[in-house]
Amino acid sequence: MAISANQRFTRGNACPICAGFESARRGQQTRCHGFLSSDGEYAHCTREEYAGTLRQETNGQTFAHRLVGDCRCGVRHDPSPPPTVTTGAHKPRISATYDYRDADDTLAYQVIRKNPKGFSQRQLDVNGEWVYNVQGVTPILYRLPQVLAADHATPVYITEGEKDADRLAAMGYIATTNAGGANKWREEYAESLRGRHVVILPDNDDPGREHGEKVARSLLAVAASVRVLTLPNLPAKGDVSDWLAADGDAAELDALTKAAPLVDARFAPKGDNEHPANTSSTSFTLTRLADLLREPVEEAEWVVKGILPTAGTSLIVAKPKVGKTTLVRNLALDVSRGNRFLNRETKQGSVIYLALEEKRGKVQEHFGSLGATIADQAPLFVHVGSAPQNPMAQLRTLIDRHHPVLVIIDPLQRFMRLKDGNSYTEVTTAMEPINDLARESGAHIVLIHHANKNSYGGGDSVLGSTGFFAGVDTLITLRDDRGRSIETTQRYGDDLSETALLFDVATGRVTLGASSEEGQQHEVAGAIRAVLRKGTQDETAIRKAVGGDQRLTSKELRVMFESGEVTRSETGKKGHPYLYSLAMPDDKATQQDSMLDGRFFPKGNTDHRASGDVFADTNEEMATWVG
Fold it and tell me: What CATH number did the domain enclosing 364 receive?
């Protein structure tokens, strides 16, 4: 592109952005090699300190400022005298200075802020005079001595400007920034933050978000942790100073910081091996297997022994009206009181229960039916109603205040507000801060969710993405296809096989009955007894008469023989198979069947075997509480 002499900035036709021109003396902050566009709508200024978020033109030297209307540098340049007659007489005045000091607290250079808005950098020469350039100076982070002196456990906030960093520092935070603002981050800055917990506060515009991602990528390989905190309710182009001015405070900032998701390799470009996923370590640590085996075995701690680990998460899924809400309210009461739950020991402590979709009166009535009274001093804290605007931050505040051992979120969808529950990326991103909160606080967090309509068992029973199942330590599935039952799939401890879930009519409390395997064994044993009451039989005849799974029949027959319940004769060799008989009189065998029925079939329902409903509820009225 040809530039005419009339377009060049001169003493009599100075740059309308920096008031500089090409023939100005060096070192006086008035030299500009730019020009006006041929249509007069843009001033191509070469001074980077006035560029704001403008990007350098493809000619590699100038920044194109719009002279009419809004300019992306952040300053509106009209109304003003026509650019062709602007002179150097009206220079911007300095409104603030920001000292950049090195690790020894020696002034390295200074950023100055001008009014109208603009920035430039300067350093002192050997004579103590200001020179308006930073040639020969090593770029450093703002407030570097304070960053280096801070405890490594203290988070370091990275803002997009010195004003914001100073505002946070005045509140007692460790804060820093880089000269030049957005898109001026240098890779060498990262080393000063090695091993630090970093929180990036991007401005609310595209350049700010791009800058935040660039900083995050730079720090992934060196920082102990990296979080990008998008402040809520920021105006367009707003920053942390705007947020604080709009009644933001330290307590909320702390809560938002803890709730902000950790940055991982999603910020790194594909194929970028220089920035691996963020971890608390900067390298792999190898341990010889023999040494690993010598280490003491870490004992698991439980909120509910064998099912709900401390500092863990669980997901309870079921179809509507099967018993999720009744189960977790029993759980909440038992943990807060230190009572056993499902025949297992509990860790007594505070409980937070978030009832996010029921009316207050219904919650009150239900807990009352479970035995809670106004005299109950158990530390159980209940929220009834919708989730607040920033649920993770608010939940973290509650946990910091009450130190619960158990948190129940009922239901999960009302808390997460996911747009697409089938999206693995969206689900795992939403689950991550919940898991972080559980690990950091030591509480177990129970999440209530829905089951698929057409499948049961394991992760396939969970409605939506597999990210729900993958993100928890324990999956608890409730079923009602053969009466109400419960089963677990666990990362820690042994899975609980399908077991009857019994609701006490008088108290509304939930207990465990027999497992489905035990129920099957009992049914087979009863069938074997019925066959042998007719007389001595060999194993082939017994299996044929009982039907069903012949391996289970053979197994139960041997158990009954070893226990002495049946006897056998003959050698068991070819042509002489074992012959089995009942070892007790027929009336005693009938009595044993009757006693075992009381264990495997809930009392008050005598037709369960005929109907196949081994796990049926015992009272229709209870169904109103099963949700």
Answer: 3.40.50.300
